[in-house]
């Protein structure tokens, strides 16, 4: 849903803006939209909840496990009957409670039981089948010798994981595979999640051709649009990809005027110092164009634009793919999905960084050591695809020698 409170562009700064200052400006710009998303909730089916942010606490409607069950394939027994010879009664299979709910057998009985099967009320322990003599399941009515087994041995007690009525997930949790598994185990089919930020991604540039089309001389396929759409969806946003029909200031404004019902517009390209910077030419006035002390990703734009449904925040990222993705990682993703996991790692090889800039390099992290992938160039998509982390060389660190410890974001 579009925010109806008009976002205000941040104040212009003199010279180059620091990474922290620009991150704060982006945070201030998006605060109204993100605050609304924190209040609004929608209900989605469990299979669609992956990656979404929980809007309300989840209260367990039942115990987990819902009944005492066996941790092993073995014999369900009374601990007081052991050690010694016992007589096998009916086998208890997982998912079949009939034998477990049958009348209590006489003394010195043992029920062959499978992993996960319901423990009969008369039993308080399980002996693994390999500990029996003979080390196998015997037929009903036959005898088997079992060793001593303390009460509770290899028993998963009812409610030992989750107790009915307790809060198992708090609002604000991003739902991944483990959280989805918990919700499924509790039998929940609908999940209250925060409404997703609706983002329009606009790729600019006369040189761009869409994948699948014929590639004329001097043209390139658009990688930024699919890349940012994937990154935004991974961060929980709902994405609309847009391409201006005409790469001109007028064409850009027309593309924006057709947009409806989005909360944020993100563009790539057209914000640098060239002669054909369509975003800069088309949006001067409501959008601020700044130089940030970041490599790659120095040129940045932010402010407000008018679309069919009102005025919404706008972020402009550079056109080179690595610059665009680094900009997203540094300034937008933390607001949508929280910070990336950060570790310290030992650098393999040396790296130089320009004075006065925060450099972000791509790397491969293995066993506490990080190897840089590719050079500092912002067009190196193959190196970007090989990387699994971002290596940070902050302002003031103009050279990191082989063996230096550096900050690494795991992506």
UniProtKB/TrEMBL annotation:
Residues 1-20 are annotated as: Disordered. Residues 200-338 form the MoaB/Mog domain. SMART domains: MoCF_biosynth (SM00852). This is Molybdopterin molybdenumtransferase. GO terms for molecular function: metal ion binding; molybdopterin molybdotransferase activity. Signal peptide: none annotated. Catalyzes the insertion of molybdate into adenylated molybdopterin with the concomitant release of AMP. Its cofactor is Mg(2+). Residues 1-12 have a biased composition (Low complexity). It is an enzyme of class 2 (transferase). Pathway: Cofactor biosynthesis; molybdopterin biosynthesis. Its EC number is 2.10.1.1. It catalyses: adenylyl-molybdopterin + molybdate = Mo-molybdopterin + AMP + H(+). GO terms for cellular component: cytosol. Belongs to the MoeA family. Keywords: Magnesium, Metal-binding, Molybdenum, Molybdenum cofactor biosynthesis, Transferase. The keyword Amino-acid biosynthesis does not apply. One of its GO terms (biological process) is Mo-molybdopterin cofactor biosynthetic process. It comes from Arthrobacter woluwensis. The keyword Cell membrane does not apply.
